[in-house]
Structure to design on (420 residues):
């Protein structure tokens, strides 16, 4: 009877318990790291029907975001431009470019270009672009430095916790309205100046970002 | 037990090397780990539709119809014309706010070609933009306000119209700002107040 369980088995339960804890820790950290938007969404850069280069058009030519996304100040949806917007220049510039053929075809036929959506909040999130850009939240806060992107990529996780970071401390992010589409802008007074001015904006513009569920989920 | 840990570590190393770090670039659509009700069968602006024959959720207005609330009774305000001819004068309130708004819009939509000063020296010239008008020359200074409005709205020659991006009011604001640019480009010391002239030593 004394030989049924060998001596080493005495330590086994403890070893199993320790291993289970380590395994659980690994699973939890794995899920936290991989099953969240910071991993699943950030870095998404779909292949677009026309390889429009923001770093050239915005960074070098200096086009304002609103030249194309013209309704962002009035509408909840930041619109993708019509082909005629492209053709305003490209009816004269690079008229024989093969890459622009889909644009010309779309302009001629009236069929929209099948641009691939990069940022897509879940359908139960009611995000409104106009209220944000009209209250000093720059494009760069959510979309990253698009003016330096050759291919647009998903830059920020856009998870709920990430939204709330700003909704809880708006003074850290608000900037003068005139600088909203200037993606390179940083407060000249550094972090301290930003907080000081930010607090002023919060008060002057009566910024009261909702933190209740119904603020965004309706 | 040693083997269990070895297999465990191999498993972790394998997972990490397959999945890579956060922020890795990918052309594949994001995986939705917990789909919940992230994607509902409802229509989004500018999205695809399986219902309409043309595949769009955005519907074009029926020919000959005007969206409710967008009809403008004042013909001059809407077209810049009085009867058959272009009119003079501004149908909007002319004040500093209107000029400031015009400047703001001008710098978004016009500067790239016509240049910040309106002299036709925008950045697109370098890339082969053809015959960009100098807004401050005598020919365009003689344009009536209504005529300038019509160019902003409908375009002219090679220039496309901006009616889709500038509201009726904003088009007039831009015209107002163009008038200010023309004044600035063609001004002389006589336009300044005596105090300003002294300050500049003229």
């Amino acid at each position: 009877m004394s030989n049924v369980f060998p001596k080493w088995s005495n330590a086994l339960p403890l070893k199993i318990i320790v291993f289970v804890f380590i395994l659980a820790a690994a699973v939890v950290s794995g899920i936290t790291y991989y099953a969240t938007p910071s991993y699943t969404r950030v870095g998404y850069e779909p292949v677009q029907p026309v390889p429009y280069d923001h770093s050239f058009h915005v960074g070098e030519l200096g086009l304002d975001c609103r030249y194309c996304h013209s309704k962002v100040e009035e509408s909840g949806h930041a619109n993708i431009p019509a082909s005629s917007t492209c053709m305003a220049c490209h009816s004269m510039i690079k008229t024989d470019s093969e890459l622009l053929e889909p644009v010309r075809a779309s302009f001629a036929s009236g069929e929209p270009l099948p641009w691939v959506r990069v940022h897509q909040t879940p359908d139960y999130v009611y995000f409104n672009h106009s209220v944000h850009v009209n209250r000093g939240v720059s494009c760069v806060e959510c979309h990253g430095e698009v003016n330096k992107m050759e291919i647009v990529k998903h830059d920020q996780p856009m998870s709920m916790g990430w939204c709330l970071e700003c909704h809880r401390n708006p003074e850290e992010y608000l900037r003068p309205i005139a600088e909203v589409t200037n993606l390179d802008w940083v407060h000249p007074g550094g972090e301290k100046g930003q907080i000081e001015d930010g607090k002023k904006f919060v008060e002057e513009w009566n910024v009261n970002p909702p933190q209740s569920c119904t603020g965004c989920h309706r | 037990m040693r083997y269990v840990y070895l297999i465990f570590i191999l498993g972790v190393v394998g997972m990490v090397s397959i999945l890579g770090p956060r922020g890795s670039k990918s052309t594949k659509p994001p995986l939705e780990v917990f789909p919940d009700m992230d994607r509902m069968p409802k229509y989004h602006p500018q999205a695809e539709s399986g219902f309409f024959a043309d595949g769009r959720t955005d519907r074009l207005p029926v020919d000959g119809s005007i969206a409710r609330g967008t009809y403008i009774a004042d013909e001059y305000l809407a077209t810049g014309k009085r009867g058959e001819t272009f009119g003079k004068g501004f149908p909007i309130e002319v004040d500093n706010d209107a000029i400031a708004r015009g400047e703001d819009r001008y710098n978004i939509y016009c500067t790239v070609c016509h240049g910040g000063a309106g002299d036709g020296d925008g950045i697109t010239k370098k890339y082969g933009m053809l015959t960009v008008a100098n807004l401050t020359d005598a020919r365009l200074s003689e344009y009536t306000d209504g005529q300038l409005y019509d160019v902003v709205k409908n375009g002219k020659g090679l220039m496309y119209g901006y009616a889709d991006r500038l509201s009726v009011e904003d088009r007039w604001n831009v015209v107002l700002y163009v008038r200010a640019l023309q004044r600035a480009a063609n001004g002389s010391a006589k336009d300044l107040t005596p105090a300003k002239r002294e300050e500049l030593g003229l």
Notes: The first strand of chain B starts at residue 81 and ends at 82. Chain B has eight helices and four strands.
